Amino acid sequence: MAAEVITGIQTWLAKPGRSLAWLLMLLFCLSHHAWGASGAVEVRRLGLSKVADDTLLTVILDRAANPRVSTREVAGKPQLVVDFPGARAGRLPTRLEGDELLVQRVVTETAAPGGGVRIVLDLFPEKPFTYWKLSRPGAGGQTMFMLGIKADPTARPLQARVVPSPEPQPVPAPPPGEDI
Question: pTM here?
Answer without folding.
Answer: 0.66
